[in-house]
Model the fold of this input.
Amino acid sequence: MFRLLIFALGIFLPPTAAPDTHHLVKLLESRYHGAQTLQATFLERYSENGQVVRSEAGIAYFRRPGKMRWEYKSPEKNLFLVDGKTAWFYVPQDHTVTRAPAKQSSDWRTPLALLAGEMKLSRVCASVSPATTEKPDVPGDVVLYCQLRGEQNKTQSPSGDSAALQSDGPEESGYLEVAPATGDLARVLVREKGGVTVEFKFENWHFNPSVPAAYFRFDVPPGVAIVNGESPAESTP
Done:
């Protein structure tokens, strides 16, 4: 689900201090809530059993309500677009585009459309707590554990303890790295069953950039075949 699905997301925290989760969630939500459009550069990495098997980079655009465009620049030019109703994944080299209803898509990029929607983590996370098993990439950032909706019924700690739940490793675990000085989402990490990890790193956030409405509409080019189903990006490389 969180594949669609990513999303992470400085005040100095003493080594023994626990981050104020409620404050960070509100800071993150308020940071993006007021923007009509957003733009950021991203690095996406897909790993299996700790080994990176695919790394891609590009520019992501978001537009309220619930639209987004991921332009992959390297190593190949691809496009992932959500127009508010339909998710499209276009591979120019293969002359194919895959489409699926956005609400039914399990692609890990789809939930990130919340950045241009209501921006409520509760839509994706059943609960949010300090991460106990993941460290921030950037010193000073804080990593939050997001218990993904739907996963809380599959894996539960007998004591209800969040730290125990993270250690037990639910089938899908989501993590958000937040810059506490600004509320910027720096990284989204999703760990899935079978040792699969999907990671997004974000930089250079721009708020309310001038982005044409046409950026969030996909017009099928002549000669391109339409395939109904999930994004090819979900299959194992």
